[in-house]
Amino acid sequence: MLSCKHTTHLLSEALDRPLSRRERFALRFHLLFCRGCRAFQGQMDFLRKASRSFIHWRDAGDQ
Amino acid sequence: MTDTRNAEIISGFRPQMLKFARLQLQDDSGAEDAVQEAIEAALGGIDRFAGRSALKTWIFTILRHKIIDALRERGRTVQVSSLERDESELDEAFDALFKENAHWSPQSRPKPWGDPEEALQQRQFWHVFETCLEILPARTARVFMMREFLGFETDEICTTLALTTSNCNVILHRARAGLRQCLNQGWFAGEAQPC
Ligand SMILES: [Zn+2]
């Protein structure tokens, strides 16, 4: 069983590279039983979305 | 939105950048060099920025990184540490969220964020987001922005900044975990609980 800390590393790397089958399986298994890591996963996805929106966000100062 | 307009915006930041670099480096020609290098490095990919804030956050991050490199080259570790929150400090803050067995400790186990989509519509949220990026260590922030703002692949980032792949992965994780914690405290914790 993965530790939560290890899981956070895999969740981060999943945003940067395709995980191996083995990693995907271990991750899915951990997430099934761990609310904390599921929340962390949602927040990682949100960070990506927020970053993409940030570069398009136009302040009132922008023309 | 054109590159030309962003290039103009960047040159508009120049005086402020110079002032910042002079203050940190205490040396005019060193400051000029750092600013010039930062501007050149920032020009690649600027067409992706539609807003001034994000562009400014990006270019000042590169400048901070250049200044820290210059200070390190001169062996001025004291100034480096006063300018930069240490990477190891962030790692310690992250480690503190876990028990001995590397599972979440009950009080710091992440909880889902209320309505994150709605945050994206709010001006005040973006100010918090900017601040959270600004307090990341310079290199950490730069790697994160190359990945998430400019959409570079990890190996391109590693090559450009002369890092190993595992180093890059560790830095990206550090950045994301740090931002998560900062937003959690600075924005989502203050949210009203749904009744
Ligand atoms: Zn977990």
Summarize the structure.
The complex is a heterodimer of chains A (63) and B (195). Chain A is mostly helical and 63 residues long. In chain A, 68% of the residues lie in helices and 0% in strands.
Return the string of H and E elements of chain A. HHH
Find the CATH superfamily of the largest domain in chain B.
Winged helix-like DNA-binding domain superfamily/Winged helix DNA-binding domain
The largest sheet of chain A is: none
Distance between the termini of chain A: 53 Å
Integer tally of domains of chain A: 1
Tally of individual domains of chain B: 2
Mean pLDDT rating of chain A: 93
Low-confidence stretches of chain A: none
CATH class of the largest domain in chain B: Mainly Alpha
Q: What secondary-structure arrangement, pairings included, does this model have?
A:
The complex is a heterodimer of chains A (63) and B (195).
Chain A: H1 4-13, H2 21-33, H3 35-54
Chain B: H1 3-25, H2 28-43, H3 52-73, H4 77-83, H5 87-95, H6 116-119, H7 123-134, H8 138-148, H9 154-161, H10 165-186
Helix pairs in contact in B: 1-2, 1-3, 2-3, 3-8, 5-10, 7-10, 8-10, 9-10
Pfam family, one (chain A): zf-HC2
Protein name (chain A): Zf-HC2 domain-containing protein
Domain Putative zinc-finger (chain A): 4-38
Task: Describe the protein.
Chain A: This is Zf-HC2 domain-containing protein. Chain A: Pfam families: zf-HC2 (PF13490). Chain A: InterPro entries: Znf_put (IPR027383). Chain A: Residues 4-38 form the Putative zinc-finger domain. Chain B: This is Sigma-70 family RNA polymerase sigma factor. Chain A has one domain. Helices cover 68% and strands 0% of the residues of chain A. Chain A has 3 helices and no strands. Chain A has helices at residues 4-13, 21-33, 35-54. The model of chain A has no long low-confidence stretch (mean pLDDT 93). Chain B folds into 2 domains: 3-74, RNA polymerase sigma factor, region 2, helix turn helix motif (Rna Polymerase Sigma Factor, Chain: A), CATH 1.10.1740.10; 80-188, Winged helix-like DNA-binding domain superfamily/Winged helix DNA-binding domain (Arc Repressor Mutant, subunit A). Chain B is an all-alpha fold. In chain B, α8 packs across α10. The relative contact order of chain B is 0.10. The N and C termini of chain B lie far apart (43 Å). Chain B has 10 helices and no strands. The interface between A and B is large, with 38 and 40 residues. The complex binds zinc ion (ZN). The site of zinc ion has 6 residues of chain A, from α1 and α3.
